[in-house]
Amino acid sequence: MIQEIRYASLAGMAAILLAGCASTVTMEMPTIPEPRIEKIPVDVAVRIPAEFENFVHVEEVLGKSSWTIDLGRSNAAFFTQLFGHMFDSLVVLGPDDDARDYQFDALIEPSIDGFEFSTPGQSQSDAFAVWIRYRMSVFDSVGNRASTWTVNAYGKSQKEGLGGGDSLKRAAILAMRDAAALIIMQMERVTNISQLANGPLDPASLEPDPAFAGTEPQSGEPASVIGVFAIGGIDDATE
Amino acid sequence: MRRNKFLLAFVGIGLAGCVTSRVEDARENVTGLEDGQSVVIMTKSYHQGNETEKDYLTCVEKALGSGSKGIKVVPHQQFVDRLFPWFEPRTAPADTKGLPALMERPGVADAVKALGVRYVVWLDGDTERVAEGGSLSCAAGPGGGGCFGFAWWQNDADYEAAVWDLDGNESAGTVSADVSGTSFLPALVVPIPLIARTQTKACKGLAQQLRAFIVQ
Is B131 helix (H, G, I), strand (E, B) or coil? Predict the structure, then answer.
């Protein structure tokens, strides 16, 4: 009996010690305030990719602890709010929605290219830092790629409390706000998205998609259309 | 009875560490605060390497707004949200030269007017441990425990507040606080902490001087 109690105590202590080495942070829905800007006069659709429904990132700190940040649907909420504030009208498409069923001037497909964070122990400071790299692909109403844009965002928050989970959440929210600020300030200049309100791009003026460099267009189709089809965008041209 | 009060006061003074402080201002323009006008306290961007602590900002906000001579302070997060995205760490103006263009952006001047903000105060600086020494060891056993030794550390709090007047879109001047405090921890069985509240002293000193600077 005493032996069993001893084993149970040891197992309990081991469980407590192991639990102390891993931290999980679950993000709440971010709120992007209404920006002080003039809306861009374009009817936009945004396709929320499947990864935005449940994005989880794990960071292993060598020899110390592991941190898991569960962003959940926060990126989906973030882009829905942001584009709702930025454009005249917004349609939100799910990963399986067919874009041909909707009316819009431009389709934006955001994705996460990279997500990293550092803990105070790693950076030898008293702050958590989060880096997010978003890729924004913009298409016209018939699926021609208008532009691709990478947005690098950064957020930093000083450690508060014992665990630091709240500080990591705050750093992630600050990184999202940083991305929002960049997108608001530079979207029009970088992507010329407002020009898509005048109609789709002239296929003759399209340049081959760099992502498909070296791929021969098939049966006279413009290279950009093949590119859009390949990433799961609009596939009008395949009909 | 009287002896006890003296003893209590003596112990109270003894339990605090040593603090030296210097607070000063440099005025560039005439200031003043009318009824309904308010102040917002911000920290300079971490994109520029600033490390001002969040609790220091909260302390200055509270200290400026409290007391019979307190002035109206708009919470910084409310200001940042209402003017989104123009006061985010990446986008906030680095100097007053950018203010006229910022005020001409859609809705910015209206939001500032609605909040009644006349002055934006930008905090820069932090509190750092600059020296430490001594040694302290503690032990515990079945019969009890205790500590023995002596430890000390010195914190320096250097902060500067740049005051921008949104009425004229110009700099009104700066207020700075330089506080140094040494804390001691002697232990003979029981440790007796003699803590120098360096950051709090820097907060209260800066807030007091800021209030005088703005109200005149």
Answer: strand
Structural tokens at position B150: 């002596």
C-alpha–C-alpha distance, residues B210 and B216, integer Å: 9
Among chain A residues, CA nearest to B79:
A33
Give CA–CA dist B161/A109, Å, rounded. 43
Among A197, A231, A225, A149, which residue's Cα sits nearest to residue A40? A197
Is there a domain that residue B14 lies in?
no
Inspect the interface and report whether the beta carbons of B81 and A174 lie closer than 8 Å: no
State the average pLDDT over residues A179-187: 95
Stretch (H or E) spanning B111: helix B108-115
Q: How many CB atoms lie within 10 A of CB A188?
A: 16
Q: Name the pLDDT band for A162 (thresholds 50, 70, 90).
A: low
Is B106's CB within 8 Å of A37's CB? yes
Asked if the C-beta of B82 comes within 8 angstroms of chain A's C-beta atoms, the answer is yes
State the pTM of this model.
0.81
Structural domain includes residue A9: no
Q: Is residue A1 part of a domain?
A: no
Distance CA A182, CA A188 (A): 11
Secondary structure element (H or E) that encloses residue B211, with its range: helix B198-215
Ramachandran angles phi, psi of A131, nearest 5°:
-120, 130
Count the domains in chain B: 1
User: Which residue range forms the structural domain that includes residue A94?
Assistant: 22-238
Pairwise CB contact (< 8 Å): A33 & B84: yes
List, in sequence order, every residue forming a beta bridge with B121; answer none if it has no partner.
B41, B163
Q: CB-based contact (8 Å) between B85 and chain A?
A: yes
* DSSP sequence for B176-203: EEEEEEEEEEEEEEEE--BB--HHHHHH
Contacts of A36 in chain B (CB under 8 A): 83-86, 105-108, 111
More confident residue, B162 or A31: B162
Total structural domains within chain A: 1
- Cα separation of A139 and A158, whole Å? 39
Model pLDDT, residue A60: 79
